């Protein structure tokens, strides 16, 4: 080891202070409130639709003045989309599909055609 003295001056040491972070992070909540209704519509999953309603109401009621100015769409738009996803998922209960129509797409072979 060398016997060189430490060149740093103790009177110039500035202790590290963690920067103050944002108190609220609306990005995740707004992302979930806009994507969950679409996921509920595409998958026709009622539980995802109810989660979309909860997240969209939470993000709408938790909006601040800053987030209202920075967001491109208002909070009530996400609430409307989540309610629309519930309408789409519960629609087959009120308007059942016709019995002659095939539900979804299947992976099995189509039914044989009778000879003419």
Automatic annotation (TrEMBL):
Extent of Basic and acidic residues compositional bias: 1-11
GO CC entries: endoplasmic reticulum membrane
GO terms for MF: protein folding chaperone
Domain of life: Eukaryota
Gene Ontology BP term (one): protein insertion into ER membrane
Localization per Swiss-Prot or TrEMBL: Membrane
Classification via InterPro entries: ASTER
Location of the region described as Disordered in the Swiss-Prot/TrEMBL record: 1-28
Pfam family for this entry, one: ASTER
Protein name: Protein Asterix
Species of origin: Triangularia verruculosa
């Amino acid at each position: 080891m060398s016997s060189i003295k430490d060149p740093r001056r103790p009177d110039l040491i500035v202790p590290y202070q963690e920067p103050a972070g944002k108190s609220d992070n609306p990005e995740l909540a707004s992302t979930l409130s806009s994507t969950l209704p679409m996921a509920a519509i595409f998958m026709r999953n009622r539980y995802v639709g109810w989660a979309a309603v909860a997240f969209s109401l939470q993000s709408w009621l938790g909006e601040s003045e800053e987030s209202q100015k920075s967001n491109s769409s208002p909070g009530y738009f996400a609430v409307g989309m989540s309610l629309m996803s519930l309408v789409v998922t519960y629609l087959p209960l009120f308007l059942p599909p016709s019995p002659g129509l095939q539900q979804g797409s299947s992976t099995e072979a189509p039914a044989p055609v009778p000879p003419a």
